[in-house]
Amino acid sequence: MRAFTLLIPFSFFIVIYPAWSFTLNNTVAATFPANDVPVNVAAHTCNNLGISNQDLLEMVADAVNNYWNKAPNSRLRLRKGSLTSVSAAFQTEPGCSSTSGGSCTPNPNLVVSSGILISCNTDTGSPANFTSGVMAVTIPNNIQGRNINGSLILLNDKADNSFKNKSHDEQVAILAHEIGHAVGLGHSPVEDSLMYYASIPTRRSLGWDDLDGLAYLYPAGQPFTGCGSITLNHDDHASNGPGIFMVTMLLGLGLILAMKSCLKTPKSLR
Ligand SMILES: [Zn+2]
Fold this sequence. Notes:
Layout (H helix, E strand, L loop, with lengths): L1 H15 L19 E7 L10 H13 L11 E8 L4 H4 L3 E3 L6 E2 L8 E7 L14 E9 L2 E10 L11 H15 L25 H10 L16 H30 L7
Helix pairs in contact: 2-4
This protein binds zinc ion.
Zinc ion binds next to helix 4.
């Protein structure tokens, strides 16, 4: 009965917070095979974003270092890349050549050869990138098997974009959210997550579900220490001395008490 009572709160906890809440941005759980992935910014001038390419690149540094690179359980380390010259198509064409059935067929003119590329985009083609005031779209558009070779982030650079009206910190958080999609994560249903579907002005760090998702896609490797062996040098042994001494003393005390108990003759059975 006592065990049953203890189980109730644990069951309730599991129902409310499922172990895997995060979703993936692609059906094959594709990931960047390299640990080190650059985030580059297209060199062309943005029309309506209100910030320069160089400022955008500096925001990328904050987006990776204040969010994803703080995950201790992930092998992935993102880094600020460089201003990169790309074709004018990246500034105007849609990210998908079709979106039938809700799935995107990447536009072959915007394939990112390697790493992550951020480009502002004025969205003059069809299907439109930025319907209903969407600030950005992200498409891992160069996937081979389970490897992401390149991902594209398009920022809404139309005159009515809402990105330009956000605070600097929220813009960094929005970039970090899109970079999360670029490395393979989908949206999280957990509101306390960077990957929650809506922009949260006060989001300044990863949530536990972001960490779970990143650890699933990019698990940190264990340091190799040999085949289960433990090497104990002289200093280690000396530092462990008090611990071994205490264990020995406790075992000795237990033995004395047990012997005293055995030597007593019971006067009657209870
Ligand atoms: Zn999103």
